[in-house]
Write a structure and sequence with these properties.
This protein is α+β, with helices and mostly antiparallel strands and 132 residues long. It has 2 helices and 4 strands, in the order ααββββ. The protein has a 4-stranded antiparallel sheet, covered by helices on one side. Strand 2 (88-99) and strand 3 form a beta hairpin.
Amino acid sequence: MKKWVALIFAGLIALGLAACGSTSSTPASATPSSAVEAPSSESEQMPGGYTEERELTDADLEVFNVAMENLVGATYEPLKVATQVVNGTNYRFYAKKTTVTAEPEESYVYVYIYQSLDASEKPTITEIVDAE
């Protein structure tokens, strides 16, 4: 009985290894263009997720400044940004917050901003949360 179990197990392993082998007769050019491939670098975005944090571009700063223009009570200095493509773009800015008080307090926060695909709509702050 043990020999049969061992033979069956060895056969399953052999089948699994054969399925993983690169001896396919299908040419690489026949691979469907919709095939999902793993990201080739850290900066590529995973479906549904945010990109890695990166340095700000002028376009990122424009989105940040327009969204924050009427915010009072604190100033925010954006330091890094990550984006998420949805029906528009979600931005996650890592920023230094300084309160506008007699004794200013500094902390670090994430400022979430949504920019619609409709260019006529202003970017909107969706959330500001402590980074700690």
